[in-house]
Amino acid sequence: MPNRQVLSANTLIEQNHQALALVKTIEMHKGFVDKLHHHTWHQLIFPIQGLIQTETDQCQFLVPHTTAIFIPAGVCHESIAITNTTFIGLYINPEYSQREKINNEQRLKQVSMTPFLKELILMIKLQYQAERTTTSHGNTLRLIEVLYDQIHTSESFKFKLLVPKDRRIKMIFEALTEKPDLDLTLSKWGEIVGASERTLSRIFAKEFNTSFALWRQHLRLIQSLPLLESGLSIQNVAHQVGYHNDSSYIKAFKDRFGLTPQQFRLRDHRIYEAR
Asked: Does residue 271 fall inside a structural domain?
């Protein structure tokens, strides 16, 4: 999987500086880091498949395909692909928004990627393409205003972080992302990475404000997301990520994400098919 398309988002923006909006599909292989950068346009990013973690100087976000992140123009951010990931970037020119002229305050926010929001992005893409050869962009502008309203009035949605900073926890993380059904105790992991169980417990509390067991459960649930997209049975997915039965997996999934694995699998993907 290529890290990026040939043209970067900033290059596309420079070449189309009078455009109202641009849509770009980006692929990142597991472990790829899109180093600290910023855009002169607002950006809305969301995965089609896979998982990314995005960080700014103030916030960190874990982004599965059920959510999107709105990043205002000029905000520096860095992303890492937790799995092989394909995501869509919608870039919005702030010069054309009436909201920008009335209220210059835009804030970084993670929101639920609802079917309506997906449909709205598709409509913006198609409408702008239809208006590119004309001097009137009124319909696209109105759709962008609706998009701003959807972003800033929707419920904020945030997944807990996964990627650790400590070298020893990173070793555990790498092993569990390769084989999430590993069922070693924290004491055994301590022997492998060269740290006491107490030390590792303290690191988990410091970095994630949780225990190793809960962090591992969250990691397993996150690892199950791309498996759900693959067409495997719920029972098979549960076993692959370390659950002994599918009922325990379904309960943990719903407690964490607010919907069942089957509901997650059946979410509307029309926007993805139109890229």
From this structure: no
Based on the domain organization, do 86 and 134 belong to the same domain?
yes
The residue type found at 154 is: S
- Amino acid residing at 176: L
The count of structural domains within the chain is 2
For 126-185, the three-class secondary structure string (H helix, E strand, C coil) is: HHHHHHCCCCCCHHHHHHHHHHHHHHHHCCECCECCCCCCCHHHHHHHHHHHHCCCCCCC
Computed over every residue of the chain, the mean pLDDT equals: 82
> Is residue 22 within 8 Å of 13, Cβ to Cβ?
yes
Sign of CA dihedral 64, 113, 236, 274: negative
Q: Which of 84, 119, 153 is the last residue of a domain?
A: 153
Residues 177, 237: Cα–Cα separation, whole Å: 14
- Measure the CA dihedral 113/116/121/125, to 10°: 150
Q: Residue 29 pLDDT more than 70? A: yes
Q: Is the pTM for the entire model greater than 0.70?
A: no
247 and 208 both lie in a single domain: yes
- Residue 242 zone, left/alpha/beta (φ > 0; ψ -120 to 50; rest): left
Concatenate the DSSP letters of all residues of 22-39 into one string.
Answer: EEEEEEE-TT-EEEEE--
pLDDT of 273 > 50? The answer is no
143: phi then psi, degrees, rounded to nearest 5: -65, -40
Q: Are 95 and 176 in contact (CB under 8 A)?
A: no
Residues, the chain: 275
